[in-house]
Amino acid sequence: MKTNGITRRNFLIGSAAGGAALLSASYLGFNSWAARDKAAEQLSVTPTLCDGCGNWCAIKVSTRGDRIWKAEGHPLSGNNLGRMCAKGHALLHEVYNKDRIKSPLKRVGQNRFEQISWEQAYKEIGEKVGAIKAKHGPESLFMLQYPEGNAALLMRFIHALGSPNAFSHGTTCFLPRNVGWWLTVGASKPEHDFANSRFILFIGRNPAAGLHLRQLRDITLGRDAGAHLVVVDPRYSEIAGVAQEWVRIRPGTDLALMLALAHVMIKENIYQKDFVEKYTEGFDEFAKKVEDYTPAWAEEKTSVPRETIVRLARQMAEAAPSAIVHSGYHGAMGTQYKNSLQLVRAVGCVSGLLGNFNQRGGPYLAPKPKLGKLDKETHPTPPAVSATMADGSGDPERYPLVPAGVGIAQAIPELAIQGKLKAGFVYHNNPLRSNPNPARVIEGYRKLDLLVCFDYVMSETAAIADYVLPESHYLERDDVVHTSSSYSSKQVSLRQQVVKPLYDTKPMVQILIEMAPHLGIGDFFNFTMDRWNEAALKPLGVTLNQLRKEGVIDVGGEWKPGEPKFQTPSGKLEFVSSTLQDIALPAVPEWEEPLVMPARNDPHSFRLIHGKQAHQTHARTVNQRYLKEITMMNDWGRVWIHPDRAKALGIKDGDCMTLSSSIGKGRARARVTDGIHPDCVFMPSGYGVFSRHLHTAFGYGISYNDFLPTYFDPVLGHNMSSEIIVRIEKT
Ligand SMILES: Nc1nc2c(c(=O)[nH]1)N[C@H]1C(S)=C(S)[C@@H](COP(=O)(O)OP(=O)(O)OC[C@H]3O[C@@H](n4cnc5c(=O)[nH]c(N)nc54)[C@H](O)[C@@H]3O)O[C@H]1N2
Ligand SMILES: Nc1nc2c(c(=O)[nH]1)N[C@H]1C(S)=C(S)[C@@H](COP(=O)(O)OP(=O)(O)OC[C@H]3O[C@@H](n4cnc5c(=O)[nH]c(N)nc54)[C@H](O)[C@@H]3O)O[C@H]1N2
Ligand code: SF4
Ligand SMILES: [Mo]
Fold first, then answer.
1. Which ligand lies nearest to the CA atom of residue 331 in the structure?
2. CATH code at 649?
3. Rounded CA separation 165/140 (Å)
4. What residues flank ion ligand 4 with Cβ within 5 A?
5. For 379-409, what is each residue's pLDDT tens digit?
6. Ligand 2 contacts CB of residue 336 (under 6 A)
7. pTM of whole model > 0.85?
8. Cβ(55) to ligand 3 under 6 A?
């Protein structure tokens, strides 16, 4: 099997998934090595950043002539420490994927597109946006984008057009996690000193599949040095597989577990009193609140035995302050449950009791380099937009805690149906597949007068757009300077062109700069990407040429344990959140039921939970055939169900099941395993692609979004993506 110079074998060499298979392969004979050495002589190496997931690992890509040959992790990168995952390797092939969009496209009928020039695309989009703005006002425009890298320029673009409507995928991913930590410690995403920790607890976070290469290394270092690693998850996840202890919790009830852990630590007087006294606010109220949350009460809610809860509380208190309750991401503490925000707050309060902030082996607020900006005299910034977002984000009367720039993306279809949004730009985002209830999303997006999608393949969203502007593959383009966010030292890094674009495609930043004059906002884009990047690097004393050469540069400021500094209104870790108090929401964490629960006496009723797999990113990588092959070889598209529940329904391992919810129906084969809580079934989240243009991915598997009703969490507007009840039957 050969794809434009990359053989299946040399893909497997790099990929973790293929490592074992290689050792027995006969081609490692002398002739092969000699041939490879010869090839190596002709390789040239460019440092850049992977775009296979949000980690943006620094990598070094070798090319031979104009062909991509192989890649390896950049040894200086704090994020990935010279490592790369299977996706990173496999996605090198995406450059040569036949499904790529090869030039700008214009819709000329249902499912019919014609190729047009960039000039024509810019001109027509400019005219259409002008007309929509004149008729409906700039607030009828929106941008839905990826919240990394080029985000600042996309925000500049939509603000220059006079619209406040900049959305990201926050309400389908991380929002409660960010807001909860921001309320509690004044910053949205604590990192962790795993390697020096003595006790590490994960609550619905699985860094061995929702991969983070640096974190994984540090977690294993910590564990091997004697830390007790505990994973709380309704299912036996990959990180549970390397832990000393898996705590199988009833999904949606982690808040009860946290409140009970706090109860035990306070009752037994084993919390860090000095820390609480010096660095926290509102302990007495919190202590009073958790009086009723006994381990026996929590056992009822969570199905975790009370003895386990008491033991865990004692173990973590014993290890404190070198003890970590991980800050979360998408599972449990992300956009999953109605009580996710309270859960994050409770985890923050337990951290307060452990006195672990900024301590060796605890959580800390990672230092980040501060980038410079363009000179405002020569490059004017767009005037501030006074209107609030159409979805009510940031509006004191509606969603005061949702930051503008994040917004509530799954509200876009509703807003389009109501006529409040008329034209949208969607960048590096695929709401038709990644948002709940696709029928509703399609209906809403179709109501728009204009939809422009920037992608490199015909995603579900691109397939219904009016214009599709193809971005160059990430190995074919430059992006704006990136700062590392998951490392104890500050770093800057750069995505840069490794090979010339194969087709008539452009980097996103270039598209914005060229399109801006056609929309009357050229003055705000009167620079080049290099100019922008040079200005960003200036305060750091790094030149763009240096960064091009090195790929990653350390700019100092390593994190060291010491006094914690909290940026909350009180300057302390807030057991009682003054911000929540001000807006009349529960200011001290308290028990809140999940929105829905499976019916206790109905053998067919389950909660549907979901999660990542290490070799797929969201539903966007399954179109890569080696990654799909990994799924197929291992039969990893199946839905997990507990043996007792399966037996009651006459379902055996491998049988086909029908799942139905209030909004959708689908079929999947069963993986019968006691690695799952009996109350729920687990669906891997990477499948169910329905764009016919994605030939490898199309039609394989199902997606949780096909079963998820359109919810808006009352406080944060997020999609509560595990509040799904499904009925299961043997097909
Ligand atoms: N390979 C890969 N890596 C990725 C991504 C990817 O798609 N693929 N995506 C990136 C992104 S954007 C994100 S947000 C992160 C996500 O990273 P994670 O948050 O780790 O991801 P998930 O797999 O969604 O959820 C983690 C675990 O939560 C469990 N869970 C579900 N419900 C509950 C519950 O009620 N309680 C508890 N305790 N656990 C529960 C699931 O079984 C799952 O094992 O990963 C990032 N990294
Ligand atoms: N079905 C399903 N839905 C999910 C999730 C899931 O795992 N499965 N996860 C949830 C989470 S945690 C998150 S963070 C969100 C993420 O959801 P989204 O933000 O919608 O992101 P992705 O699904 O990663 O991919 C979006 C689009 O970006 C395109 N893309 C990839 N590379 C490039 C590029 O270089 N340039 C451009 N212009 N486009 C590119 C892909 O082709 C894809 O169409 O989804 C949430 N919803
Ligand atoms: S974790 Fe894998 S896919 Fe994600 S950026 Fe790193 S190498 Fe790429
Ligand atoms: Mo995410």
1. 1
2. 2.40.40.20
3. 8
4. 173, 330
5. 999 999 999 999 999 999 999 999 999 999 9
6. no
7. yes
8. yes
